[in-house]
Amino acid sequence: MIINSSGSSAARVANTALMVAANRFFSSTARSAVVAGDPVVFAASKGLGFSAPNKWGHLVRAPSMVRGFSVVRNGSTLAMQEEKENRSAAAAGGGNKEEKKLMSYWGVEPSKVTKPDGTEWKWNCFRPWETYKADLSIDLKKHHAPVTFLDKMAYWTVKALRFPTDVFFQRRYGCRAMMLETVAAVPGMVGGMLLHCKSLRRFEHSGGWIKALLEEAENERMHLMTFMEVAKPRWYERALVITVQGVFFNAYFLGYLLSPKFAHRMVGYLEEEAIHSYTEFLKELDKGNIENVPAPAIAIDYWQLPPNSTLRDVVMVVRADEAHHRDVNHFASDIHYQGRELREAAAPIGYH
Ligand SMILES: [Fe+2]
Ligand SMILES: [Fe+2]
């Protein structure tokens, strides 16, 4: 390996010794300073590959083709990086060269992914193997009749929450959807986090429920990212979200600790309300009271929708998602009602 193209052998030895000492004793900043002047040593970092779920839901190293999307793994050497930078700078009219050097050094540079048509995959917030076609055949009318005291409490808590929501938003369904998704994305994350901590505390598996609940949170957040494209929040709406999140996160956290049976049942009913809200949204679209604008690009890619899809198509797939969340949460509550733990039943991972 060439250490320093211009130095004598003594200089090479000194440089190598400095590198070893830097790696062993110095901070990352100091190490960077040592290697920064030597492209070849600097290039010893390695790139991160991709992982994609196989048919059993396990993450596997991505091959060169992932579900029809070609994946090009980037080289990790600075030399290769600089060559690429020159190409991308020429294409994009410049870029942050220092940032790219840093990414190359740590090996965390995202790989390039392209669509089947050869165009670049432009979303960093989700990758092609996380996209799916929504199951629109799901029964939207399924309802869990509240029988026990806890169920009735969950049901009426949700009904009570709907009243101020109706008053505040009235028929502004785009805005309503955007705001409600900021709340809907909380329970999955809180539940997943608490199950994660429980798994660590008890030295036991979660049965896949951590992943299933985090998937739900991610899916809800994608709903929000989608509706952000059709309704921009005003300052007082942002303030409301901060306030509501502060209260709801902590309330749900405590509620889940005290009774996951109640917490999941409540989310099941929240999802039933979400289905109702999106049905009303569709009615307004069909009446022409809300303009059926073209679907946002993020939605077309996430739900694998046809390019000419509209807002109506997006609301349809989001409503189908909510129906799936309803089933997952009522199912989770039912498991607890049977006196079992969630990990004893296989989690509905990838249930869309
Ligand atoms: Fe949602
Ligand atoms: Fe939902």
UniProtKB/TrEMBL annotation:
Keyword Transport tagged: yes
Keyword tags: Disulfide bond, Electron transport, Iron, Membrane, Metal-binding, Mitochondrion, Mitochondrion inner membrane, Oxidoreductase, Respiratory chain, Transit peptide, Transmembrane, Transmembrane helix, Transport
Localization annotation: Mitochondrion inner membrane
InterPro entries referenced in this protein's UniProt entry, alphabetically: AOX, AOX_sf
Record's bilayer topology term: Multi-pass membrane protein
EC top class named in words: oxidoreductase
Cofactor: how and how many bound: Binds 2 iron ions per subunit.
Cofactors that this protein relies on: Fe cation
Annotated signal peptide: none
EC number: 1.10.3.11
Domain of life (superkingdom): Eukaryota
Oligomer and partners: Homodimer; disulfide-linked.
Listed name of the protein: Ubiquinol oxidase
Species annotation: Crotalaria pallida
